[in-house]
Every structure is written in structure tokens, then in C-alpha cells.
Amino acid sequence: MPTSTESGAPEPVTPGAASPDAAAPKDAGPSIPGPEKDAVSAARVVGPSPQRNWFATAALALGAAGVTLVTILPGLVFAVAGLRRAAATGSGQVRSWAGVALALCWAAVGAYVVPHLVAASDPGCRAYKGTALTAYNQVISDFGGDHPAAVDQDLSRAIATLAQAASMSRDATTSHDLHRLTAQLKTIRADIRSGTVVSGSMLGALNRDAARADSDCGTLQV
């Protein structure tokens, strides 16, 4: 109903206007525009994306490449960094520990293989593993009865090549053991020439000296 002024005349009402007595909505709060409202809704549904741990990924890759031996130390460094980041983010712990395990495995392999490779690079060892070892194996084959008539000749060849390898070696222990093996062969040759039967103990000593020379020259025992 139209309201009255103090003079008693009715106040005109504008068509379409809301009545001044209409109650405003209570606790409506600030309104959110359409695009911003959609973004807020999407954030509530999707949630925050997990943080990535690139240190852990790098540690795993470097650990796997540890066969080259040069990536072992960097792999361990990245693994430690990856574990620290995993403690903060909860991501990458498994990859970091896998990188540690791979790096340590390759380190153990390297600790076994590298000294053998260094020993094998000795000039005397290279000569031993070439013509000298071939001649020695031929003597062992002769002892087995394959070519008994050629034993003396093969022994002389093995003695000469082993003596040369011993003189070429730069390692005192390797040179000593090769000379010792040469002396054993000389004793066996003297026994054969004199018609003495080579004893089993002599052959056993020969095998031990040959095994020692193999060890000195970096022959891998798998």
C-alpha cells in the first residue's frame, strides 16, 4: 500500500521498484564472479599436484649407469639429496634408495675388477698371457699324453717365454713368481732328460706356481 507524507498526500510509487519495506537477504556474504567461482570449485575437486623429486630420478639413473664406474659418486650424492627432498615432500624415497643400492653394487664390482685390470696391464703379465701361457698350456697338454714325444721341445719353449715375461715385469712379486714357475719347468725338463719320473708333488707345486702367476697378472676368478 502507498505510504503517506507528513502532509497526508500519498507518495507516488515508481512502477517496477521494490517496496522500501521489503527485507534484504540476511548473511548473503560477498558474491564470487562466475570464472573465479569455477576455479575455486576445480581446486576443491582436483587438489594440489604432487611435488616432483628430480634428485631421486637422477640418483636412480646415475646408479644404473654405475657400470662405467664414473657415475657412482655422483649417484650417491644425488641419492642423499633425493632422500632429503623425499623427507620434505614424501616423493622419491624408493628411487633414492634404489640409486644407493645400485651405486654400492657397482662400487663393489669395481673394487674387485679394477686391481685385476691394473695388474693385467703390467708388460710382463701381457707377455705371460700371450705366448708364455700358450706354451705352458701346451706342456700341460703333453703331460696329459697328447704329444709325449714333443715334451722336451715344448718345455724349452715355455721356459724361454716365461723367462722373458719375468724379465719384462715391472712388479717385483710378479717377476719373482714367474721366475719361480720357470725354475719348476727347468727341474721337470731335467728329470725327463735323465729318465726320472716326474713326481706328483712336483706337478702339484707346478700347478700352485701357475695359479700364483695367474693371480699376480689379474686373472679373474669368477
Structure, explained:
By secondary structure, this protein is mainly alpha-helical. Helices cover 67% and strands 0% of the residues.
Structure characteristics:
single chain; 222 residues; mainly alpha; rod-shaped; disordered N terminus
Strand content: under 5%
Helix-strand category: mainly alpha
**What is the average per-residue confidence, as pLDDT, rounded to a whole number?**
80
* SSE run: HHHHHHHH
Biggest pleated-sheet summary? none
Number of strands: 0
Quaternary structure classification: single chain
Helical fraction equals 55-70%
- Please compute the radius of gyration using only Cα atoms: 44 Å
Q: Please tell me what the overall shape is.
A: rod-shaped
What is the end-to-end distance?
Answer: 108 Å
Low-confidence stretches: 1-8
Counting DSSP H or I runs of 4 or more residues, the number of helices is 8
Q: In short, what is this structure?
A:
This protein has 222 residues and is mainly α. The chain has 8 helices and no strands.
Give the secondary structure arrangement, pairings included.
Blueprint: H1 34-46, H2 54-64, H3 72-89, H4 93-120, H5 123-143, H6 151-168, H7 172-193, H8 200-216
Helix pairs in contact: 2-3, 2-4, 3-4, 5-6, 6-7, 7-8
